[in-house]
């Protein structure tokens, strides 16, 4: 942990969570700064947002690595290390990170997923799945990424969103997004202030910061 934790956002899509993070990070008291955005896409909203806000934006499509995702992820890791990134935030990143990246950032990769995990994990259609299942409550989850598991890993924060009778995927997704924009920056702040204690599959939120190892 440093005075202001250096954060990279990995994103593939629109980037509304990136915008929320950038907005909150402008608050003087926020304990983290978004210094890098990496995408697996050659173009996407998140890259445009990063460039417009003066944040380093790096596009690393797998086709530039002959389709070798492991080689591309080594390039991601090089980029993260060069930027002295301490915390990675996957905000709509639609690829599974290689074990190399996960091993380099133990308990230092946050992911946001649009359901109350462990319900409706493992796919890109969690909102549609929740509607199809007829649940009355869904929501979003911020969790730490662990090797060998997609949309799984110790849960940091969750927010519940009631499903309305006339919801479709767009209306429900919009209300889930509003909660994501709140809990993701909160989770980043908790991480950056050393208030997350990981015990196996559980995360305890500490009242006081704990000692964290130095910058990678
Ligand atoms: C979010 O709903 C997130 O939970 C999921 O992808 C979406 C990204 O949205 N993993 P945005 O690009 O941040 O708007």
UniProtKB/TrEMBL annotation:
Domain Formyl transferase N-terminal, residue spans: 6-188
Positions of N(1)-(5-phospho-beta-D-ribosyl)glycinamide binding: 15-17
Keywords: Purine biosynthesis, Transferase
Feature type site, description Raises pKa of active site His: 151
GO biological process, one term: 'de novo' IMP biosynthetic process
One Pfam family cited in the UniProt record for this chain: Formyl_trans_N
GO terms under cellular component: cytosol
Pathway: Purine metabolism; IMP biosynthesis via de novo pathway; N(2)-formyl-N(1)-(5-phospho-D-ribosyl)glycinamide from N(1)-(5-phospho-D-ribosyl)glycinamide (10-formyl THF route): step 1/1
SUPFAM superfamilies: Formyltransferase
Catalytically driven reaction(s): N(1)-(5-phospho-beta-D-ribosyl)glycinamide + (6R)-10-formyltetrahydrofolate = N(2)-formyl-N(1)-(5-phospho-beta-D-ribosyl)glycinamide + (6S)-5,6,7,8-tetrahydrofolate + H(+)
Binding-site residues for (6R)-10-formyltetrahydrofolate, renumbered to this chain: 72, 111
Catalytic site positions: 113
This enzyme's EC code(s): 2.1.2.2
Single GO term (MF): phosphoribosylglycinamide formyltransferase activity
The family this protein is said to belong to: Belongs to the GART family.
Listed HAMAP family: PurN (MF_01930)
NCBIfam families: PurN
PANTHER family for the chain: PHOSPHORIBOSYLGLYCINAMIDE FORMYLTRANSFERASE (PTHR43369:SF2)
Function: Catalyzes the transfer of a formyl group from 10-formyltetrahydrofolate to 5-phospho-ribosyl-glycinamide (GAR), producing 5-phospho-ribosyl-N-formylglycinamide (FGAR) and tetrahydrofolate.
Protein name: Phosphoribosylglycinamide formyltransferase
Species for this entry: Candidatus Aeolococcus gillhamiae
């Amino acid at each position: 942990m440093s005075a202001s934790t250096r954060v990279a956002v990995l994103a593939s899509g629109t980037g509304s969570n990136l915008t929320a993070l950038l907005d909150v990070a402008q608050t003087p008291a926020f304990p983290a700064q978004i210094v890098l955005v990496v995408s697996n896409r050659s173009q996407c909203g998140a890259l445009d947002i990063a460039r417009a806000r003066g944040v380093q934006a790096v596009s690393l499509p797998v086709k530039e690595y002959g389709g070798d995702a492991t080689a591309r992820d080594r390039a991601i890791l090089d980029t993260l290390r060069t930027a002295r990134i301490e915390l990675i935030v996957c905000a709509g990143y639609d690829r599974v990170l290689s074990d190399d990246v996960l091993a380099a950032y133990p308990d230092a990769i946050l992911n946001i997923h649009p359901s109350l995990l462990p319900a409706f994990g493992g796919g890109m259609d969690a909102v549609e799945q929740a509607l199809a299942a007829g649940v009355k409550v869904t929501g979003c989850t911020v969790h730490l990424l662990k090797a060998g598991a997609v949309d799984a890993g110790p849960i940091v924060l969750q927010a519940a969103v009631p499903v309305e009778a006339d919801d479709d995927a767009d209306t429900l997704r919009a209300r889930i997004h509003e909660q994501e924009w709140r809990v993701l920056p909160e989770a980043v702040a908790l991480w950056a202030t050393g208030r997350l204690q990981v015990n196996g599959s559980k995360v305890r939120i500490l009242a006081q910061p704990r000692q964290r190892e130095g910058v990678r």
